[in-house]
Fold these 2 entries.
Entry 1:
Amino acid sequence: MVKPKVYVTRQLFPEAMEILEHHADVEVFEGVDNSIPRALLLSKVRDVDGLLPLLTDKIDTEVMDAGRELKVISNYAVGYNNIDLEAATERGIYVTNTPGILTDTTADCAFALLMAVARRIPEADHHIRAKRWIHAWGPKMFIGSDVHGKTLGILGLGRIGSAIAKRARGFDMRLVYNDVRRREDLERELGVMYKSRDQVLREADYVSLHVPLTPETHHMIGAKELAMMKENAFLINTSRGSVVDEEDLYEALRDGVIAGAGLDVFEEEPLSHDSPLLGLDNVVLTPHIASGSIETRTRMALTAASNLVSVLQGREPLNLVNPGVRKVRPLRT
Ligand code: GLV
Ligand code: GLV
């Protein structure tokens, strides 16, 4: 039997490559740190049955129309704003993601950013390395803000939002949230209080964003929302950069409208080397690494590989994000 063809846009962990190679003829983009060039993606997708892209690969109608044989797009990410879902569904292409597995790792990172910016850890580290630590101790040296006992506002109480709530409970934080869906079960389980979005922004000492990027959440946090926040509050973003209007955020940070921010995601990635954010001390920046632990990235690769193989074998994948596709092209059972 002829094996199906699969294209992978970056070398993954060997365990995952083995699964793919067992079931398919696999070709992989050879780049190590760089994304696949668009033109190459368009040519490579031409005769493949399955595509395994990264969140940096824009999979739009042009890619899907070049990939006439495509049956499955298995995103190596939980977020799938890089894929035109409606177009995939119309064309009978199954789209899958990697939810659940990266929840705790991402929440760990969000909490690390919160702690780092509150207690000015990177700033203090730079101070020592720059050989500027001259006076042994001072009552006001790098004084930051408490985390314990403060109010954490969670926007988006999904899996990751809930996982950060669990961490915050250990720090005796007061927890408020807003979500498009009220979650009374989680309110009881996690001790979180439902509030309007504006009320969350007004009350919280730390606001952490855990919504997907959609037309509704694009620039959900801009000048108006930042102005509602307390002057001594911090914004943490590990979701998608465009959930925040980055220019407005820069101005708010520069002008002391809010106290600081911990950011893992940006409107454009990589962040421009000219970004004014780089000139601010009250921001901690990481390059979209929230799910980046060896354990989680390996599990994500295994999940992406097995989702892809399932569809190629006519089986229901574990993590289908466009269930409407079943009507357009039913899997053989
Ligand atoms: C990472 O940002 C992901 O969506 O998996
Ligand atoms: C997504 O929200 C996840 O937790 O995987």
Entry 2:
Amino acid sequence: MKIIRSLSEMKAARAAAGGSVGFVPTMGCLHKGHMSLVELSKKNNTATIVSIFVNPTQFGPREDFAKYPRNETRDIAMMENVGVNIAFLPQAEEIYPDGFDTWVEVKGITDKLEGAARLGHFRGVTTVCSKLFNIVQPDRAYFGQKDAQQVLVIKKMVSDLNLNLEIITGQTQREPDGLAMSSRNMYLNQAERRAASVLCKALEKAAALYLSGEHHAERLKKVMAELIVAEPLANMEYISIANTSSLHELELIDSPALVSLAVRIGRTRLIDNILLAQPACV
Ligand code: AMP
């Protein structure tokens, strides 16, 4: 596996790569969720490139940029083990040099859910992804359904800007108790870790009720909220049942629906989601 830190070296390596290139952008502290995207990429491409970059512009001023978990040595070993071809670890000074002043922003769907809760977050995501796509020039880029809104936003950017790559979505990978894998799970102490399974339990409950014939979104949300309120370490931020493409909230679930939620467990903010009419999370 090649480890590349400079943009010029990355561009040269891309130009030299024959065949198709799959790209998995990450913020590191890799887990099985990231690795499942790598496996998808390896199946369909000649070479797989993984980037690790904790992107400062997608964090709000009161968010966890400084303490976001970083473990380059372990990440490099994991990437090497699964057969990643290039680990791309760009430096913030090169991605955002002095005077950097150009932003890529998707409107509309970024007003809702994570975009409403984390102002400026998606502008940071779309800006850095545009830059990474331009540098790496992948044929396909892989994103996790765990961040469902991010997938929609990236697909919209790729379509609106006629970018020349395909966006592939990988399923959410979960711990045995259903908790969606996330680098931020490292923040949880033992009691919080146990409490964190409430997100998935709430989603499962919604799926079960839906399958039993309850199609009123408010009723599903109420039952989900009751479960979360009953968990002393949990603080609910939002619960949403929205159309999967517009993200408009639904009253009656009569179109494909994304059920998503953000919950603080202690001081750690976790998100999760399911698509309705699909199997529940565990
Ligand atoms: P991150 O490092 O958190 O920015 O995530 C990098 C990529 O991995 C994003 O496309 C995420 O959606 C994806 N990802 C994160 N957690 C999971 C998971 N549990 N299952 C599948 N994909 C995931």
